[in-house]
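Give me structure tokens for this 228-residue protein.
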Amino acid sequence: MNFYDMIKPTHIQDFIYDDEKHLRKLELLIKNKITFPSPSKKIIILHGKYGTGKSELAKLLPELIEQNQIDGAINKDNENVFENHVGTFIVCKADNSACASKRAMPTAVSFNKSGRHYVILDEMDNMRSDYQKSLKGFITEYDHVVYIMTTNHLEKLDDGLKSRAHLIPFISPSQKLWLTRCIEICKMYEVSYDESYLANLIAAADGDARKILSELEEYILLEKLDAA
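Here you go.
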């Protein structure tokens, strides 16, 4: 198993997220304590700085929603309720708005036990405004699709989409939180670590999770080679 598979989050609590209020809201949405999806809110929008883990969380949310909301209702035998899920992950680009919006409006039957489709629209701000409006109309009319969207530029999203969404902001986690996580990963790999070195590595990355984890993987590999 490679480094990224080893450290891949599987629960909300695995994410390095420095906002307890919105973390709690996500948990309530996943468990349907806050009704989701509802007639008024069928979208979760993760927005904020690049490199803060929005896309990774967006990929995980459909599974968490499906498992938590079905568990105890249909999932009485502890079966894997998500095994037949055919999710749709779409990276929005300036030149693929027509194709992306078409794929984001499924009309076929879903194989999920909930009967829902899950559509993840990454970098949603890249979709042209006219296609965003078309998608808004589809979302208003149909109830069988749950949307997870990510964006670095919330201001570029259609106001109608935002009004139909739970907005979850992403800011760079504190360096203290990152240091704790990096130490946990070093211990997982059973390598010695220099806390000062890790702190400097984190500071130099300026909150960019991709850069931190890439540097950490290299650090762990070198430590293992030195110890061999």
